[in-house]
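Researcher: First entry.
Model:
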Amino acid sequence: MLEKDRFLCYNIFTIERNEAVKTDVIKLSLPDRDRTAGVGFLRQFSVAETYPMHGHLDFFEIFFVLNGKAIHCINGENQLLQKGSLVLIRPDDIHSYKAFNRHDFELVSIGFLVPIFNSVCEYMGLPPKVFTDEKLPPHIVLDGYDFSDISRKLLRMEKRTAPEERRLYFKGILPFILHRLLSYGNDIQMKSIPNRIRELIDAMSEKENFIEGLPRLTELSGTTQEHLTREFRKYLDMTPTEFINLRRLNYAAELLLECKYDIIDICFMCGFGNLSHFYHIFKKTYGCSPKQFVKNHTDN
């Protein structure tokens, strides 16, 4: 999606000051083409295609991450999005997305008017407040059959362009989705990423820091490596070393595609001290050797 096109997905209703995030926030409404159905469908393939910090005027949103990772900035806090993240955004929520360690993500987003949400809650015998009272929106991570099932159900929305057909189909699957959010919610609600971890993520995106690696991360954190490992596992589902290696590998891929340096030079330029280890984790991550990676991409 082109930069000039991404703001055509919704109507920008107003811009107002939000004290919770201390900034001016765009308030969106569903695009005109979707208001008859009361339901809109959007598939996005990059953090760059998403809106900056915004809220919703009169609609809920369900988004589901099909691939990748990103940071979800939500109501002044941060959460890790990953493949299988299913989130219900309420009209009063303020949110945006940021890249995580040079990852990107793909997601499906379904916007739907408040009356549709209320009518489905009434049908299910649930008060809307079970979804709206908490500070952070319901957020769970699905895998296995549940991931495949939700993916199929949401992606089928794309072909249902007739307003009445789209509304009826979505009202049929929404109880299933809300039930998943409730049944998983007690055990798998996502933890907020503390600001100190978010600041470390940003700092370690700087080349001079990730090249230096774990000693630099430990220095910036002001804590022990053991404590860092616990926190990274808890909030990011990876170790500090895995985090650093992913950042180094992204940089290595950029250098490889420039075709200016030998592979052994790139290995050391990115902070890897051992060529065989570099080859091993590169292949594990990209599915091919550095040499084959260059050939695949330059051929294309």
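Researcher: Second entry.
Model:
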Amino acid sequence: MYRGYALKSFYGIVKNAIRWVAFGLITGMVAACANLSAYPPAPMAAASTDYDYVVGAGDTLNIIVWRNPELSMSVPVRPDGKVSTPLVDELVAQGKTSVEIARDVEKALAKLVRDPVVTIIVTSFVGPYSEQIRVVGEAARPQALPYKQKMTVLDVMIAVGGLTDFADGNAASITRASEGDKRYAVRLKDLIKRGDISANVEMKPGDVLIIPQGWF
């Protein structure tokens, strides 16, 4: 009788062990399937060699008018994308390069100043909304960042403080506005947790980095 009870207990233990093994296999398969992205991997190189910074609302411009210090000053770009300077009531700055703005100021000043020579230096960078990098989802500090030439996804993750404990980093994706909102897969977990530099890719102006929540 005791022997039969022992065998029954042994078979019960084996049966439970098999159940747990099966559960572990199924869980692993589900996790593996979850990490399989429907999007192609993001290209390593994305930056354009002919990129020129475009001024946006919130930027600060240092306007220097040669031989006219009274006309030189530092001004912010207003939320409507315009700036005001002495002798120039309103001038559209948003969406233009510093050189283009300088030529516009020269043209406006030419009505009152003889042969004005203007230099524009951008001293605070925000950039237009269309070129900002946005990070949404399971980042420590989701936010919008000004785009910088050769900026990578690692630079972005450092700026936002990394991933939360609930992030599914390898299921993250980039939506690329410059390519008609095409989506690319990025492996943030491999990059940040495992130091896999092959997962570091360049960003483009207007990219949106989406970090979903993990299942487990």
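Model: Note on the second entry: The helical segments are 2-35, 98-109, 153-159, 188-192.
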